[in-house]
Design brief:
Two copies of one chain form a homodimer.
Chain A: H1 3-10, H2 13-22, E1 27-28, H3 29-33, H4 40-52, E2 56-61, E3 64-69, H5 71-85
Antiparallel strand pairs in A: 1-3, 2-3
Helix pairs in contact in A: 1-4
Chain A binds a DNA duplex (30 and 30 nucleotides) through helix 3 and helix 4.
Chain lengths: 94, 94
DNA sequence: TTGGTATTTAGAAATATTTCTAAATACTAT
DNA sequence: ATAGTATTTAGAAATATTTCTAAATACCAA
């Protein structure tokens, strides 16, 4: 949790692109990096931010670290937006 | 449109708080400012970012500028997230 | 153990963001 | 026209973010 972290993570185009890549399935850090014109170190930096925001989780295997999309946090963000929009289920008189 | 701008706008806690305030209805810049411990200039800066992202629109009246939530852009962001999550309606083989 | 591949960490440079103060603009009312 | 209130704009300082290079860690294979 922590919407601040999550929205911040979503605010960078590289990180959103990474998430879109992961939509098709898990990828290693190297495979992710190969889609961008940046060093592995920079990709690692972005992956770390996504991980802290719990938008992805990692899975170590052999010599690789695989990253996977965490859709449950995506869903939490959608709920926040739905409430902002005034979805009936979440509007509470206060 | 322009998700970069929109997500960036949503990434700041002050701006998210402003949007939540506006959920209840339109407010003038001054009324918005009174909820925060910041100068009017800073609030104006944030309102401008929200305006550029089309998350709010303004309405000039008398001596005041009223700001109002634009829920349609909130909805577009939700669609982007829904697609990321893999909602059936938006998944397209590519 | 030695060497190789995958990835991260550290530190620094460039850029962007947030905030302030002071000044400017815009509109109202007298 | 003048004075007053509401808000924005400009410019500067503080802080945060993004990116790189170089070095470190982790793991595998021979």
């Amino acid at each position: 949790m922590g919407f601040a972290e999550t929205f911040k993570a979503l605010s960078d185009p590289v990180r959103r692109d990474i998430l879109v890549l992961l939509k098709r399935g898990r990828l290693s850090a190297g495979e992710i990096g190969s889609h961008f014109d940046m060093t592995g170190a920079t990709i690692s930096y972005h992956l770390n931010i996504l991980k802290k925001a719990e938008l992805v989780f990692e899975n170590r295997e052999k010599n690789f670290i695989y990253y996977e999309l965490n859709t449950s946090v995506v869903e939490e963000v959608m709920l926040w937006l739905a409430e902002l929009k005034g979805e009936k289920e979440y509007v509470e008189d206060k």
